[in-house]
Amino acid sequence: MNPVRYGVIGAGVIANYMTRAFTEGRGSIATVVADINPAAAQKVATASGAPKVVTDWRAVMADPAVDAVYLATPPFLHKPMTIAALQAGKHVCCEKPFMLTQAEVRDVIAAQKGTGLHVNCASSRYNCAGTAQKAKQMIATGELGQVYHVSFTQVNPPTKPGATLPDWRNDPARNGGGISFDWGPYDLDWLSFVLGDLFRPQLVFGALGNYFPLTAERVPPCLGVDGRYTAQIICEGGLTILWERRAGEHGPARHSIELRGTKGGLDTYFMPMPEKSGMQHHAYVGTEELKTTLLPDAPPSWEDAIINPVRELTAAIRENRPLTNTPADNLRIHGVLDALHASGRTRQAVKVAE
Ligand SMILES: NC(=O)c1ccc[n+]([C@@H]2O[C@H](COP(=O)([O-])OP(=O)(O)OC[C@H]3O[C@@H](n4cnc5c(N)ncnc54)[C@H](O)[C@@H]3O)[C@@H](O)[C@H]2O)c1
Predict the structure, then answer these.
(1) How close is the Cα of 5 to the center of ligand 1, in Å?
(2) How far apart are CA 253 and CA 156, in angstroms?
(3) What is the 3-state secondary structure (H, E, C) of 34-83?
(4) Is the CB of 74 within 6 Å of ligand 1?
(5) 165 lines ligand 1 (CB under 6 A)
(6) Which atom from ligand 1 is nearest to the alpha carbon of 13?
(7) Which of 10, 12, 75, 214 has the most beta carbons within 10 angstroms of its beta carbon?
(8) Which stretches of the chain are assigned E, i.e. beta strand?
C-alpha cells in the first residue's frame, strides 16, 4: 500500500513534535515543508525526512507529490489553508482550534462536500488514550446506565517565569480566544468522542476571565486573552455538563472528569498521565456501601497522543476507516465555543446553533 504523502505547513513548536509521524513507518511520509521562515521549515524537513522546503504555502497545494496537508499554522490561517487544500484535492489534518468560529466550519463543510476528501482536527489527539477509549466503551455498552451528568475540570499550571509566546497567542482576532480556543477544543472533542450521541449541546451559560499575574515575578505572557472559563452545557435529552478550565492559579494543576449514570459512576482524567493510578468505577450494589473499583487503564505515551491525528488521517485514507473527529463534530464543538463567548459577553444562557 502506498504511503500517504504529506505537505507540512507551519514549522513552529507543534510541527517539530509531529515529525515522528512521518518517520515511524506507519504509512505517513512528508514530501515538503512550508514556512515563511525558511530556517524553521528546513529544521522540520530534516527531522521529518522531507526532501523539499518552500516559503509559499500555496506551492504545497499545487504540488502533485502531496496527498494530504498537515496544517500547523496559527489559527486564523486554518480556514483559508483548509479550503485551498480541499480545492486542490488534498486531505487535511488541521491543528486545533479547527477554526475561529462555527461559521468558518460551515464554510469548510461546504468546500468538502462531494470531494470524498477527509478532514480531521488535532483536537482529537487524546481520543487514543486508554482512559478515553474505556470511558467511551462503558457508556456505549450501558455499563453506567443513562449518563445524566459530567463534571469536567481541568487546571493547567502557570507558564514558567520569563516564558515568551508568539504574538498571535495574545490576539483573539488571530486565535479566537485564549485558553478557551487553546484547550477548549480538546475538552469538547473528548466529550464528543466519549459521549457519542449523548453530546448534543443545546444551551450554554458561562463566563470567562483573563490571565493575571500570580506575583510580580510570575506574569503570564498573554494578558489580553481568556485564561479561565466556567460553563454549564445543557444537552438535548437532559444531560448536564459542568465544564471548567483554568490556568495559572494559586492552586495545583488538576485533571478530573466525573461521569455519572443511573447504574454507576466513573472518575477519570483527560491527558495521558502515566503517573496516575487509574480510573475509578463507583456503584452501589444492593444495600452495601458504595463500592469503588480501580480499573486498569493503559494511557498512551504523550508522544503517541501528539502524533495520533496524523496516524488517524493516514489510516482513514489507506484503510477506509472512519475518523474520530470530522467537520460535523467540529460544527458542534465550535457551536459551544461561540455560545460560551456570547454567554460571557451577555451574561445570558445562549442557545447553541446547529
Ligand atoms: N505549541 C503547542 O504546544 C501546540 C500544541 C498543540 C497544538 N498547537 C496548535 O498548532 C498551531 C501552531 O502552534 P505553534 O505553537 O506551533 O505556533 P508557532 O507560532 O510556534 O508556529 C507557527 C508557524 O507557522 C508559521 N507561519 C505563519 N504564517 C505562515 C504562513 N502564511 N505560511 C507558512 N507558515 C506560516 C510561522 O512562521 C511559525 O513557524 C496552533 O493552531 C496551535 O493552537 C500548538
Answers:
(1) 20
(2) 5
(3) ECCCHHHHHHHHHHHCCCEEECCCHHHHCCCCCCEEEECCCHHHHHHHHH
(4) yes
(5) no
(6) 16
(7) 10
(8) 4-9, 28-34, 52-54, 68-71, 91-94, 119-121, 147-156, 201-210, 226-235, 240-247, 254-261, 265-268, 279-283, 291-295, 350-351
Determine whether the shortest distance from the Cβ of 72 to ligand 1 is under 6 A: yes
Contact between 121 and 149 (Cβ < 8 Å): no
CA–chain centroid gap for 324, Å, is 11
**Ligand 1: which residue has its CA nearest to atom 14?**
13
Cβ of 9 closer than 6 Å to ligand 1, yes or no, is yes
| The pLDDT of residue 272 | 73
Smallest Cα–Cα separation from 193: which of 274, 132, 266, 258?
Answer: 132
How many CA atoms does the CB half-sphere of 298 hold within 13 Å? 1
pLDDT digits (tens, 9 = 90+) for 188-222: 999 999 999 999 999 999 999 999 999 999 999 99
Domains of the chain (ranges, CATH numbers): 4-122 (3.40.50.720), 126-304+334-351 (3.30.360.10)
Predicted local distance difference test score (pLDDT) of residue 269 = 87
**CB-based contact 50:81 (threshold 8 Å):** no
Tell me, using a 6 A CB cutoff, whether residue 190 lines ligand 1. no
Per-residue H/E/C for 225-252: CEEEEEEEEEECCCCEEEEEEEECCCCC
pLDDT of residue 271: 81
Q: How many residues does the chain have?
A: 354
Residue 303 — very low, low, confident or very high, per pLDDT cuts 50/70/90? confident
Helix (H) or strand (E) holding 129: none
Q: How far is CA 165 from CA 171, 186, 243, 335, in A?
A: 11, 20, 26, 28
The answer for residues whose C-beta is within 8 angstroms of residue 260's C-beta and 6 or more apart is: 144, 147, 148, 149, 150, 151
Q: What is the largest CA-CA distance in the chain?
A: 68
Which grid cell is 43?
529544521
Atom of ligand 1 nearest to the CA of 34: 33
pTM: 0.97
Confidence of residue 277 (pLDDT cuts 50, 70, 90): low
